[in-house]
């Protein structure tokens, strides 16, 4: 019986290529990480999560708790280019805000920017003490009015940047403190309406 031929083992890892992931122009095209893939097409639509602190746009303590989401939309050479698709604040940070004898009010709203782009925003308002259902209703209404008035007059680019910088939650906070004693307002999540071909 003839001896069996040994199969040549191909190291698949060696066939893979490293790509530098690049943030969109909105974030000055900064490199935000590296990834590996056997083929360019395998990178398309992959979602990348980066903390706001790692992006280098903020040095505040809260920046470490804010995760920015990007989707790979184009690959050229060894560069993978991305689009911003949203952000979220890690749940652990939000739990620290919701202490005893405070009311936590969530507001979810779909808005359109001045340039007609759709984005879903989720805000959380934390009061300094327990409030009645009527006050909660007034807070939700004030959040919606304030945010809509702002987004109707603002481009998507500015909504994204000012949302991450805390300026939107700051505007809402200033409005809500006219209603009751407030502890914190956060834009806890945003998600861009995406269109796929």
CATH class of the largest domain, named: Alpha Beta
Mean pLDDT: 89
Number of helices: 6
Helical residue percent band:
25-40%
* SSE run: HEEEHEEHEEHHHE
Q: What is the quaternary state of this protein?
A: single chain
The outline comes out as elongated
The CATH topology of the largest domain turns out to be: Tetrahydropterin Synthase, Chain A
**SSE class:** alpha+beta
CATH architecture of the largest domain: 2-Layer Sandwich
Overall number of domains: 2
CA distance, first residue to last residue: 58 Å
Please indicate the percent range of residues in DSSP E strands (runs of 2 or more). Answer: 35-45%
CATH superfamily of the largest domain: Band 7 domain
Gyration radius (Cα, Å) is 22 Å
How many β-strand runs?
A: 8
Uncertain regions spanning at least 5 consecutive residues: none
Task: Summarize the entry for a quick read.
By secondary structure, this protein is α+β, with helices and mostly antiparallel strands.
What does this structure look like?
With 197 residues, the chain is of the alpha+beta class. It folds into two domains: 15-89, no CATH class; 91-192, Tetrahydropterin Synthase, Chain A, CATH 3.30.479.30. It is 27% helix and 36% strand. The chain has six helices and eight strands. It has helices spanning 12-15, 52-55, 91-97, 133-152, 156-164, 167-176, and strands at 17-22, 31-37, 47-51, 66-76, 79-89, 104-112, 118-127, 182-192. Strands 1, 2, 3, 4, 5, 6, 7 and 8 form an eight-stranded mixed β-sheet that branches. Helix 4 crosses helix 6 (167-176).
